[in-house]
Design a protein that fits this description.
With about 140 residues, this protein is an alpha/beta fold. Helix content is about 40%, strand content about 20%. The protein is built from 5 helices and 5 strands. β1, α1 and β2 form a beta-alpha-beta unit. The model has no long low-confidence stretch (mean pLDDT about 90).
């Protein structure tokens, strides 16, 4: 049986748009799945803040907005996967479903298209978190 009372999972949410960050947090809620611990969100709006949080460690997952400028989530995902040892799984929010091929280049584990579908985002995030935290 999974201990769901353990320390919260930390999820980084990066976007220069506070509304996008709020949409992500509302879509996932405090506990995206009953088998997972509660979630603690770390909201950031700049690339240096993303880097600082990654350097600090302890992140279970990162959600990066691909539409943020000047540093988009796809470019940050690529740099993180190239440079950060033991980087957390990354979900990139993309402007169009046709841009999903860029996730292959960026090495992000998943993409979700804008406008955000809360159910799709939750399914994607839970799918990335459960294998790490829940036995088969």
């Amino acid at each position: 049986m999974t201990d769901t009372t353990s320390n919260p999972l930390k999820i980084l949410v990066y976007s220069d748009d506070v509304d996008v960050r709020k949409q992500v947090i509302l879509a996932l809620g405090r506990r995206p799945h009953p088998s997972l611990p509660e979630v603690e969100y770390v909201e950031v709006a700049t690339e240096p803040a993303v880097r600082a949080q990654l350097d600090a460690g302890g992140l279970a997952l990162a959600v990066l907005d691909g539409e943020t400028a000047p540093a988009g989530g796809l470019g940050i995902a690529k740099a993180v996967k190239d440079e950060v040892r033991d980087a957390p799984p990354i979900v990139v929010l993309i402007g169009r479903p046709q841009d999903a091929w860029l996730a292959t280049w960026s090495r992000a584990e998943a993409t979700v298209a804008h406008p955000l579908d809360p159910f799709e985002l939750a399914r994607t995030v839970v799918g990335l978190l459960r294998p790490v935290n829940v036995g088969a």
